[in-house]
Amino acid sequence: MGERRGKYPTIKDVARLANTSTATVSYVLSGNTDRLISLELRDRVLDAAEELHYTKSAVASSLRVNRRGLVFLLIPQFSNIYFTRACESLEDVIIANDFLPMICDTREDPERERKLIENAVAQRADGIILGPTSSGWKNTAILRKLNIPYVVVGREISPDKDSQEDNEAYFVGDDSYQAGFLAGQCFARNGHRRIGVIEWNGTVSSAMDRSMGFYEGIRRQLRNGGSLEVESSDVLSTEEGYRLTRELLQRTRPTALFFGYHSYAQGGVRYLAEMGLSVPEDISVIMVGTPAWAQFSSPKYHTIYQSEDWVGSTAGRILMAQLQGEESPLLAKKRYICPCQLIEGNSVKDLTRL
Amino acid sequence: MGERRGKYPTIKDVARLANTSTATVSYVLSGNTDRLISLELRDRVLDAAEELHYTKSAVASSLRVNRRGLVFLLIPQFSNIYFTRACESLEDVIIANDFLPMICDTREDPERERKLIENAVAQRADGIILGPTSSGWKNTAILRKLNIPYVVVGREISPDKDSQEDNEAYFVGDDSYQAGFLAGQCFARNGHRRIGVIEWNGTVSSAMDRSMGFYEGIRRQLRNGGSLEVESSDVLSTEEGYRLTRELLQRTRPTALFFGYHSYAQGGVRYLAEMGLSVPEDISVIMVGTPAWAQFSSPKYHTIYQSEDWVGSTAGRILMAQLQGEESPLLAKKRYICPCQLIEGNSVKDLTRL
DNA sequence: TCAAGCAAGATAAACGTTTACATATTGGAT
DNA sequence: ATCCAATATGTAAACGTTTATCTTGCTTGA
Asked: Which of A305, A317, B145, B155 has the most neighbouring CB atoms within 10 Å?
């Protein structure tokens, strides 16, 4: 019962109750050993603090010493396993280094991203991990200006042509080009030549690289005839995946479908089911990303696996190295790219044996 | 280049550059209209602030006025769609009310939960939303003690028998009993009498209520003969779902399986697939929770749908009502329970027509 | 002419910590 | 007796804001 509002007990209250000075209380409560304190007094202080349910105000404390103990993790969506998985290993290293990870989602919205970054600096975050939107470079300008440590994950950001900045950001991610390439190659190996591609035309690096890689992986195969039908959208979501797949299949009927993002695949696969098309008999499927549903379903899908934990822990370690301010070999390199891996399921039909 | 460490420009720097006092700068920058300021000076201040890339320190600011603008969202896991979905609508109402939502995950770990709650109060969070672990009641004691507004979602927490506290927490969640009941009833309607149950024996309310409901839903049916085999675990995870299902099926061979949690179902379904058991021909399945994979797979699974968005937005609105400190009809009630809904797929075989 | 009122701005106290510095009390050693 | 070192504690300044209070120079009405 009773009011909230300035109700927290302060160090002063503790001092009064323990009949001593605030300095002493501070020394006792922060375990600072620079000063000798009699056991008797120490106990009195601890008892008083306990009795009042005293909790140190991190805000007053970090105003004084220049350390917030906060790291912000800004990710584009919770429904994107790539980022939530990376988050988990990130949290582990951040916590292990005695920082508190705070997660916010930008919803793939540049404006929201801008506000969240601004918030992070207003909160005086010690560092920031960013899974960027398409405006990632612009929105991080303030971090570069104020020299706040940050690491970009998953999607690369880079200076606009007109910008004169060249202060490249730390980046940890997967080899998106290779991801596409592996998929294209797999279709090629299995003799597919009429292929549908569902891709995201977000202006982030990963999207474009995936397409490039895919085309390169399948190019040879198509030289002797074949077709590539593409359907794409600005929006990355399950629903949009459904719609794109429908559009594409109403136009043409390929033997194989490549989904550049598993969220698209999720919607697309639903459309296939509703149409009574079975995988891989009627149509083959590969997707980038390895969501649970794709592994535990029948058919089990071919997926391109990206090492989210590696990405997370590496990004975390780089940020920590920056914060510790030591010379770390980790900091010598700016771009960390992890190779992908084709995980075979049974969603690709072998056409070469017909 | 250059050092981090006290590098942020302060209001004092701005004042110096604009050749005025800190008071004026503060008034201008916070848009406080209590004071008249000449246009000329106002512009000088704004220019100076811009030039220095000044950002107000939320930590200094909220030390002074007693308002943090922070709401912590503590959820047990990112892989649990129930909570991530609730999070999204929570964020919306929190942001709409001009607070900044910070998300942390407790990993279903009571100790971690305790620390995170402590952190939240150390950060002087204005309010807390908690998807509790089994120690939820104990860990929130400090919030009650210090009178910090909080709302519990998804799983109910309640005083230990030995505790003398009776200050019931605000709770928003689904009717877990009904969730179980609907599932039991559905099996009963379809004539199943040899049934396997995979349940979580976490000591949170939802777990126990689900089982109770399920038994009640199926009870009648079993009166004329039948069997119920239960397999349960302390740990809630996909892997454990796999293991429990294996244990159960090695012991007995029911016609239907009830998964109390979709994470268990995910692992269980994989085991079924590996054993070559097909759903619903060989075995019927219902699960609580409606993950994407269960909807987009074939077969489409019977699921018990819980209204995560309703839970999220309601919990958010209750917390905001507390923070606004007004009399809100919302605050009159302590427990908000949303009914569940059986979403039919084709994972339950009708045995009555044989 | 002058007090009163007002516009436009400055000064300084306060928020809850941390910590440099000052003080007071001991017990030896000289 | 005197001085010093060691121990144990207190005082107060500082961190970056906000805001109550004070100052100054003008206007203006009687």
From this structure: B155
